[in-house]
Fold these 4 entries.
Entry 1:
Amino acid sequence: MSDPTTPPITAEILDAICVAIEFAVQEYEYRQDEDDFVDDVGMGDDIKKAHQWLTAAAAIQQKAAPAAAKRHPITSAMYAEDPMYCPNCHTGDNLQPWNDSEYDDDPLVRPIRCGNCGCKWTDRLSLIGYEDLRDAKGEPITETAEDYTDADYAGPDGSAYPVYMTPSAKDLPPGLYITLWNGYREHVPLAMRPDDWGFNGPMIGPLDNVQTTYGQHLKLTAADGYSLAHYFPDRPKNDEGFYDLIVDVEGCVIHDGCRYGDWTVDYYAGKPEADTP
Ligand SMILES: [Zn+2]
């Protein structure tokens, strides 16, 4: 550094050096995992040394970093809308994926490093579904209507809980009920669903209260002296003492292997079956 012909190492240069070394280290670690051939060609020690440089450089970088004006990080939601910019320094031209063995088993996490400010974070990805399903020979797997029977299109039969507009709902005590309808079986894909209003689902009640949180979480409380347990055989009360109904991304309520496009919350006065609400 005392040589006058040596240009000063700026924060940008130091950054670039750190990125280069880090990639070299990653490459080394990756190859070591693969087949240990790095040591065979004598590169191992050099890269290990590079690892030490990286640590040292990072320490210098930390000390040399100017006291930057405090910027608020971009929120996670803002970043998700436009993941091209560093959440910390807001620049968008130098984001690089990097390897972090901590996340090797999670395909929905992608570690990212900003080459501009050096900060790291992990992208949390969301799986929407799968595409292009093929069999072992590479042929597309398609389904036809013949692959489904009437049972795939039938609603709940009323034996476990009362179902709207069926005899099972005839003797319900008067009270407040949430009724699910416009239903289909979860396992039936969109392309295989009939173009109709689906089947009727449970009348859940009598209720004391229905609370909706964030438009996608319905919390039900039974009226005094009643239990909702038989409506939720595999889903006990949550920690807050509610029974839950979750609304999926398409706006359907999920219940007992079915999804329902509509729900109503009505006072049911105890009418005969033919006039149930
Ligand atoms: Zn940054």
Note: The longest strand covers residues 175-185.
Entry 2:
Amino acid sequence: MSEDNKKHVNFDDDVDDDLSSNEEEPEDNESELIAEQNRVLQQQKEPVKKAKLADQDLKTLNVNELTPLSPQVISRQATINIGTIGHVAHGKSTVVKSISGVRTIRFKTEMVRNITIKLGYANAKIYHNPNPTCSRPQSYTSRGSGHADSFPCDIPGCEGNYELVRHVSFVDCPGHDILMATMLNGAAVMDAALLLIAGNESCPQPQTSEHLAAVEIMKLKHIIILQNKIDLVREQEAITQHGEIKRFIEGTVAHDAPIIPISAQLKYNIDVVCEYITKKIPIPVRDFTSSPRLIVIRSFDVNKPGEQVEELKGGVAGGSILQGVLRVGQEIEVRPGIVSKNADGTIKCKPIFSKVVTLLAEENELQYAVPGGLIGVGTKIDPTLTRADRLVGQVLGEVGHLPKIYIELEISYFLLRRLLGVRDLENKGKIQKLTKSEMLMVNIGSTSAGARIVAVKADLAKVVLTSPVCTQVGEKLALSRRVDKHWRLIGWGQIRKGKELAVEE
Ligand SMILES: Nc1nc2c(ncn2[C@@H]2O[C@H](COP(=O)(O)OP(=O)(O)OP(=O)(O)O)[C@@H](O)[C@H]2O)c(=O)[nH]1
Ligand SMILES: [Mg+2]
Ligand SMILES: [Zn+2]
């Protein structure tokens, strides 16, 4: 894969400047991802008294009968994606930890600085005890993804069992203002969002507004507001801030969102959050019957350095399924695949063909995977092609059924009136028109690419991408511009047509 293409996956290049040294970051990721993957593989070898989960059988699978609530599916994988959004340090990762038990802060630089840098993923099972002796909100609770689907309620005076009602996947976004590109990639897969607002700061803070605008652009409608850190404020301050939040959400997509006071740290009202997730977030409408398609969000080589050739495992891709059902044993194609340049400088690509060897949702093994959450796909692809996130932004799916690969796009677009995510704007806040030959960043699905504007006319623009993207007409995209060294959201658009890239057979 060419250097150019490797670069396009890392649009948080700002992170390298500001949050970690250039030398450390790639090393850091690779070794820690390997450590994480090895830990998962190790645990598969020596299962630690795993709960009995529902069986999946490819022989009896009928995709027409599957729903995002089918017991054999939600026993093992998440089927609803919930983003956590909001200003830096307002408690996004802490609330994910309180609900799922999973700490999404994993990387060395993240731990040192106590901030989220990469998208975090964590699955949680949400349970409800329908027995009348068990009253709300305690009748709702949550556990990790590998927990049994039913267990007795142990609250004194209660009868009956907690039954699995939802299996959700949290997409934990970074709140730091320079990581907006990462947040936008996450926003593309969200079905709903938890908007965290710290109770001990005035509302809104810059990324409170910018993130809300971003999910609005992505047409996301289901938002639950969590007024967090309630343990740090007096009742009267909390009530005053509640009014501030109400005024802030007026006229936005979140205008009628519930506002729940919580302490993510002390786990206060987390059961109410579970109840609202169950009652207020509709089950997403999914397409299980079309040919399967997964957007790659991470990829790695799980082999230890110096591994014997016969022991080598194929490349692993982690991603989100957009449509269809992916099965163990299935023949797959990855697009654009291997990207390179011809002698004359034009870009070409060669799709990769392989086979699904294993499917994993966190630590749960799957026979088939449906849309929702992050799915790990073990393949027979040469692991050097998947190491260090090299396949990020590519699409994996049924051979011969993937969308086209574009290098030039014609889009219709809208610009925001003002920049939302910066504090001291003075007169820099007004968003200027697009100009010919300027370089923007586009986020299409979970991938980002540089986009050089070659023509603008009213609300139409033609852009040349820095790296090819596998996508389709009608797909929406977010537009960002570099302002004071950082990418800021300026608007959004939709693909109207494009110039395809030649594919090598
Ligand atoms: N007192 C109190 N502190 C909290 C609460 N929730 C989170 N914190 C603290 O606030 C800090 C930030 O929490 P995080 O969960 O990392 O915040 P975040 O929104 O994920 O931060 P970024 O991802 O970097 O934007 C941590 O030190 C938490 O311990 C809470 O309910 N009460
Ligand atoms: Mg965080
Ligand atoms: Zn109970």
Note: The chain has eleven helices and 23 strands.
Entry 3:
Amino acid sequence: MLDKIKRFILANIFRKNYIRTGKCKGCGECCTHIYVKHFKHVLKDEKEFKRLQYLFKFYSDLEIIGHDELGLIFKCTNLDEETKKCKIHFWRPAICRRYPQEELFAMGGTLSDKCGYKMQPIVSFKDVLKKSQRKIFRTNILTRWSAKNNLMSDEIKKK
Ligand code: SF4
Ligand code: SF4
């Protein structure tokens, strides 16, 4: 019941499509393969990144380790490479506390296979299919009903 309420609130109030399940296993993967979305775009330009480092504290903790078709790839220097633990865990930024969020998928990212979290669609494919079938059925009924009404009014006019 609680799960149903949670799903309802997420879908209808927060307009979310996914629900996060599982828990962090502390593998550190999400701190070593990072894309940065600034406003509406994923950072691709090193010069832009250097400029942003002056403006945002968290950016100065990131180091460029490569790039791909999506954009620049960073690692966070706050990650202890040996223990895979965050060295500033208590003060870590809000974005790290909220990870993973569904916006990750919107920017083309995915969860690491090692990640202990899973992002599950709130509404299953089966339910989406059922809903759209119901919608098509209702639309068909309405179309037939209005066509029948038009026919009847045409016949009345003729009389
Ligand atoms: S601040 Fe900590 S949790 Fe956030 S990316 Fe860096 S190492 Fe990971
Ligand atoms: S990838 Fe997932 S399991 Fe690994 S540290 Fe990040 S949140 Fe935790």
Note: The mean pLDDT is 84.
Entry 4:
Amino acid sequence: MNSQVITEMLLSGVLQQKQKKLDEVRSQLNWGTPLSELPVWDKSEFIEKSKTQTGLIVISGIVHDCADFLVEHPGGQPLLKSSFGKDATVAFNGGVYAHANAAHNLLATMRIAVIRDSRASGNTFNSQLEYLAKKSEEALAKKEKN
Ligand code: HEM
């Protein structure tokens, strides 16, 4: 066996150990309820429930209960409060503010339902990427026009 093969074997052993540790940490984190386990609501159900329950926000086809988070929101209470009972997908993904990874992960812990026929995606970054792609296309078109 040549030395390169030995080095690669040792490295893959080290990588496996590291992956095991990462998997352990990952399993202890709260990644939010999987979408398949959430109840499914019609849009009208969301509107109806929002009349009596404060703090519900739709982002990327998923209903989140943000009531307890209101006082903690780094972007302030008024912006979050004005999104209660609404679809804030665009606002959350750059329309008002492009939230960081941590905010997307935090959001996932607040899931309570999925909206029927909504292209719901557990990966809220998809909407962020779509939003950014649209923005850059617009910017390009504007540049070409000038
Ligand atoms: C729905 C759940 C929301 C969660 C969990 C959330 C979470 C956060 C977090 C963790 C930050 C700190 C910076 C970052 O991580 O990006 C932040 C900042 C901010 N958020 Fe939100 N946010 C939510 C909704 C919204 C909405 C709907 C708006 C606007 C309509 C908004 C506007 C802002 C703004 C403007 C900041 C920047 C604060 C600053 O640095 O000055 N957020 N948010």
Note: The longest strand covers residues 111-115.
